[in-house]
Design a protein that fits this description.
heterodimer; A: 60s Ribosomal Protein L30, Chain: A; 2 domains; seven-stranded mixed β-sheet; 13 strands; B: about 375 residues; alpha/beta; five-stranded parallel β-sheet; four-stranded parallel β-sheet
């Protein structure tokens, strides 16, 4: 995002559209960067105006993560691709216990995309970053021909610092540990599904898209010996638990009755034959915790707005087959398997 | 969730389980075949089998439309897109089903075929309206339940003169399939009868089951408490030595069924002479094709595609499993060569298939039994 001087004719943010020249490196691109990206994302590191941002880092181990966002539709109840691109990467850092510092953002924009929509997305991204206490310090913009993209794709990379003494990792779950879920599942996936015009049914469900590092900090302050954290995004809670079981070489036993599901999410899943356990979340986490600390952990989570509905959903068990099993609300029991195939494409 | 949670009540389930346990004769086996994949799914998803006494076993029947669709029909669908360049609209669960040469519609789409996943026949009609320059084919499958929506779409297409819309018809009929299994001598003691199918056809078409085969049949709803109550009704019939058609699913099923839908189906379809069922073989008068008045909307006439009948994978026990003779775990491919991610046999390709349900939900019980 290098810049010379501001062009004289302003962008037409009401009716203008992205053209190939906006990605060509010339005056039009500079105008787009100034008129949208720099205007919303402004911070001293971005303002350095070099091909890279340079900054000092606090002591501790660095954590780095990257995430591409291709969600369709771009705007949905409870969020949009801009906020999601911040939350997704911040959460990937937070699941390692990292305090997120900076993000980079790469935009691939389709020719003809409305400047007003782009402006709205970047404004939302800036707001999400501000709320999360991170800055977007470097970026890139490319424009592809009409038909070669779908509006806009955003890739964000994040950098954070893990404080001393925090050791969170997916292979640390041990038999006897408690499994805790931060709140109701399936809200993001169902909010997206309801927006897809060809389904034609409306629900009041909003995406749970949110940055979780504040909640994580509160959890680590209460229980520094937490074993692992993971956010159940694509593949839902089922995939998340199966991943952890495989990584740690353990089984899991959960209780369906303890898993919070918003009634409208449950109803939408019922209608469409979907299992809420397989539906994506963007603002929830699973924590594995030593059993003796689970009450402290739950108290800390419930005191935070993003963990108000936190629930102790089950236990880690010994199992060479590494199965996730569930006592059903009905009183029987079953295996909770990975999702097979494609349930819903382009949810994040 | 109102009208749903009531049928999944934990306390009621416990009481029903206790009643069933008290009434079964411990000296005999109870083999109950659930015809429908919907029942198979409910039994596994809610863990109903574990609530049953040890000698009462659910035997999983062939009522999963994706499972019984012959592989050659998948090959034909792929050929429609590749040789005739049509836009194929299909329900999502058909996308992963391998055809005779192991290719799926997903693969065909990745290689450039125009395959759209739809949730209803209305989506397919909309695509045809929006793209008058494209030939749009709806890949119709299913038992009697999914047939009326296809019929409605065909009547709409005719009324609108939607010349670029057609249907690749694979609708099948429940009673002939049930008759075929029973004629084969399936080793079962009673039948949990179809739920949604019966809302359409009513209870009358099942009269042959007690009359010709001396087996009790209870039309059962798809909720887990429906399954348990129907199980109790069947246990009582077995104990009493009676064989009757009973209707547990009274809130939706009548004796004569939905006459309006039946009339609609009769206008739009006619019975095929024969249809090859995957796993069960050819069954006479067991499927539907478009009636002559709708011939212009028949994709098989509009785009003739011949495909050789496909051979089933070697070692696959699906035919025996679909007839209730074997359990999924008795197949040597189960969980080794054949899993939901890479299905070989018919029963693994849909989540309603016996093998897929067993794999996804049911592995615990067998392990407990083995251990």
């Amino acid at each position: 995002m290098t810049s010379q001087s501001s062009p004289h004719t302003p962008l037409d943010l009401d009716h203008g559209r992205v053209e190939m020249t906006h990605g060509a490196g010339g005056r039009a691109m500079d105008q787009l960067i100034d008129g949208i990206f720099r205007r919303h994302l402004d911070n001293p590191l971005l303002a350095q105006g070099n091909d890279q941002a340079r900054f000092a880092v606090p002591p501790g181990r660095l954590a780095m993560s990257t995430d591409g966002h291709v969600v369709s539709p771009l705007f949905f109840p409870g969020g949009d691709i801009g906020a999601l691109a911040v939350h997704g990467t911040v959460n990937d850092l937070a699941m390692g216990g990292a305090q997120p510092l900076h993000l980079s953002a790469g935009f691939i924009i389709e020719e003809g995309f409305a400047l007003a929509a782009l402006d709205r997305i970047v404004a939302s991204m800036a707001r999400a970053a501000r709320e999360a206490g991170v800055t977007v310090v470097t970026g890139d913009t490319k424009v592809v021909e009409r038909g070669k993209g779908d509006g806009v794709f955003i890739t964000t990379t994040g950098l954070g610092v893990v404080p001393e003494g925090i050791e969170l990792s997916g292979e640390r779950a041990r038999p006897g540990d408690a499994i805790v879920l931060s709140g109701g599942i399936g809200e993001h996936g169902v909010a997206i599904l309801a927006q897809r015009e060809h389904l034609g049914f409306a629900t009041g469900v909003r995406s749970d898209s949110a940055a979780l590092h504040g909640l994580v900090a509160a959890m680590l302050a209460a229980v520094p010996g937490l074993r692992c954290l993971r956010d159940p995004t694509r593949g839902g809670l089922a995939a998340c638990l199966n991943e952890l079981a495989r990584q740690s070489g353990v089984g899991m036993q959960i209780r369906e009755a303890a898993i919070p599901v918003h009634p409208e999410v449950a109803a939408a899943c019922e209608l469409l034959g979907l299992d809420p356990l397989h539906i994506a979340n963007e603002g929830k986490l699973v924590a594995i915790c030593p059993p003796e600390r689970v009450d402290d952990l739950l108290a800390a989570m419930r005191a935070h707005p993003l963990g108000a509905a936190a629930s102790h959903i089950g236990e880690v068990v010994e199992d060479t087959l590494r199965l996730v099993q569930m006592e059903t609300g009905f009183g029987g029991s079953r295996v909770v398997d990975w999702l097979t195939g494609e349930q819903l494409p382009r949810i994040c | 969730m109102r009208y749903v949670d009531e049928f999944r009540d934990h306390a009621l389930a416990k009481r029903l389980a206790a009643t069933i346990a008290a009434e079964v004769d411990p000296g005999r086996d109870y083999r109950l075949m659930e015809f429908c994949g919907g029942h198979t799914h409910a039994i596994f998803r809610y863990g109903v089998q574990q609530l049953m006494p040890p000698r009462l076993r659910f035997v999983h029947g062939p009522g999963c439309p994706v499972c019984v669709l012959p592989m050659a029909r998948i090959d034909q669908a792929i050929a429609l897109t590749e040789r005739h360049g049509v836009t194929l609209c299909t329900y999502g669960d058909l996308m992963r089903v391998p055809g005779g040469d192991r290719r799926t519609l997903f693969q065909a789409r990745a290689e450039g075929a125009d395959v759209r996943m739809v949730y209803s026949t209305q989506d397919a009609l909309r695509i045809a309206r929006e793209q008058p320059g494209r030939e749009v084919v709806f890949f119709a499958i299913g038992f009697e339940t999914t047939t009326p929506p296809t019929a409605v779409a065909l009547e709409q297409a005719r009324a609108e003169g939607l010349a670029n819309f057609s249907v690749f018809c694979n609708h099948v009929l429940t009673p002939p399939a049930l008759a075929a299994i029973l004629a084969d001598g399936a080793r079962i003691d009673a039948i949990l009868g179809p739920s949604h199918v019966s809302t359409l056809i009513g209870t009358a078409p099942y009269a042959f089951v007690p009359e010709q085969h001396r087996l009790p049949l209870v039309i059962a709803g798809f909720e887990p408490l429906d399954v348990m109550q129907s199980t109790l009704m069947l246990v009582r019939q077995i104990n009493a030595g009676t064989a009757r058609v009973e209707n547990q699913y009274r809130r939706a099923v009548s004796e004569s069924g939905n006459r309006k839908a039946q009339a609609l189906m009769a206008r739009v379809f006619r019975v095929r002479e024969r249809f090859a069922w995957r796993g069960l073989g050819e069954i006479a008068e067991s499927a539907l094709e478009l009636a002559p008045e709708f011939a212009e909307f028949d994709a098989e006439r509009r785009f003739p595609v011949e495909c050789a009948p496909a051979r089933e994978p070697r070692g696959c026990e699906c035919p025996a499993i679909l007839r209730g003779e074997k359990r999924p775990t008795e197949c040597r491919l189960f969980g080794t060569g054949c899993t939901p991610a890479h299905p070989l046999g018919a029963c693994m390709v849909s989540s309603e298939g016996a093998c897929a349900a067993y794999w996804s939900y049911g592995r615990t019980r067998d392990r407990a039994a083995a251990g």
